[in-house]
Amino acid sequence: GQIDPTPGSWWSGTMRIVGLTGGISSGKSTVSNLFKSHGIPVVDADVVARDVLKKGTGGYRRVVDAFGEDILLPNGEVDRAKLGQIVFSDPGKRQLLNRLMAPYISSGIFYEVLKLWLKGNKVIVLDVPLLFEAKMDRWTKPTVVVWVDPETQLQRLMARDGSNEEDARNRINAQMSLDQKRSRADIVIDNTGSLEDLEENFRIVLVQVTRPLSWTEFWLSRQGALVSLLSIVIGVVGGKNLYKASL
Predict the structure, then answer these.
(1) With the CA atoms of 218, 224, 228 and 229 taken in that order, what torsion angle do they form, in degrees rounded to the nearest 10?
(2) Which residues of the chain have pLDDT under 50?
(3) Cβ pair 147, 201 in contact under 8 A
(4) Which residues does 75 contact at the CB level (< 8 Å), separation at least 6?
(5) If you count Cβ atoms within 10 Å of the first and of the last residue's Cβ in the chain, which end, N or C, has fewer?
(6) pTM of the predicted model as reported, rounded to 2 decimal places
(7) Which pLDDT value is given to residue 174?
């Protein structure tokens, strides 16, 4: 019942999906907002993750079963700050949370993309902090990484959170390095300079990612798109029913 869109699936070409990622304090959120301000719809994985952890959802039940009711607020919702503290200090628990949430987040992202495709959007941005780690880059082309050098990243994080150097380094080291992400990117936005520099770099990237789809891209993807979409919908509905039956 899990959804696993891959390159060459029904949407590749009919809609360009731009992968956007970076690291903590790299400026990814600023770039995400720049896309929105230029009329490009953005599917934010963090927003999806919050939605799939709301009280009463399948993700909520899985996480509460795994981590206990101590992570709940008085109103029954998950205390995201407390859960974050738990998983940040324990790599094993962080991996457990990622395993529990990944199917729900992937499905949530899929539905957001589907809605935008049905509305006729030709270009959308997937804003995913763990784009490479979760292997979601296989859905996207091109992949954009917002990069800063390690020292700039450290100083910006300490200034933003008021944290000491050790805590800031620990948070940065808990992620894939920006240099690693840069090596896997199709497009790199260098954000070591000023906001004006970033906006200038962004304008160049915007032209690249909004260029018209080539006829090859368009027609290859149109062949069998409706059949593929129908099979996906049938699979999703069937998968949901199977999941409910197993509870």
Answers:
(1) 60
(2) 1-13, 219-228, 230-232, 234, 236-247
(3) no
(4) 55
(5) C
(6) 0.77
(7) 81
